[in-house]
Amino acid sequence: MKYDCLIVDDEVILAETTCEYFNMFEVRSAYVTGAEECERFLQEHEPSLILLDINLGQTSGFELTLGVYA
């Protein structure tokens, strides 16, 4: 499935609320709460934009981008 936006944030309430807000304006959005979940999501879906939190608990957004796009 194609998404307009993927939100990656380990703060569940923030990710969920942002996703709901975007969806209200017909920006087809989904959210994940960690790096591994993001990698699995990207194997099956193709977002146009990724909003990525830099501080993801055990890893960082920088490390995630290196792993996914290297």
Question: Describe it for me?
Answer:
This protein is of the alpha/beta class and 70 residues long. The chain has one domain: Rossmann fold (3-Layer(aba) Sandwich). The protein has 3 helices and 5 strands, in the order E-H-E-H-E-E-E-H. The chain has helices at 12-24, 35-44, 61-69; strands at residues 2-8, 29-32, 46-52, 55-56, 59-60. The strands form 2 sheets. The protein has a 3-stranded parallel beta sheet. A two-stranded antiparallel sheet has the order 4-5. The longest helix has 13 residues, at 12-24. It is globular, with a radius of gyration of 11 Å. The protein starts with a strand and ends with a helix.
Q: What is this structure, in a nutshell?
A:
The chain is 46% helix and 31% strand.
Q: What layout of secondary structure does this protein have?
A:
Layout: E1 2-8, H1 12-24, E2 29-32, H2 35-44, E3 46-52, E4 55-56, E5 59-60, H3 61-69
Q: What key phrases describe this protein's structure?
A:
70 residues, two-stranded antiparallel sheet, single chain, alpha/beta, Rossmann fold, phosphoprotein, Sig_transdc_resp-reg_receiver
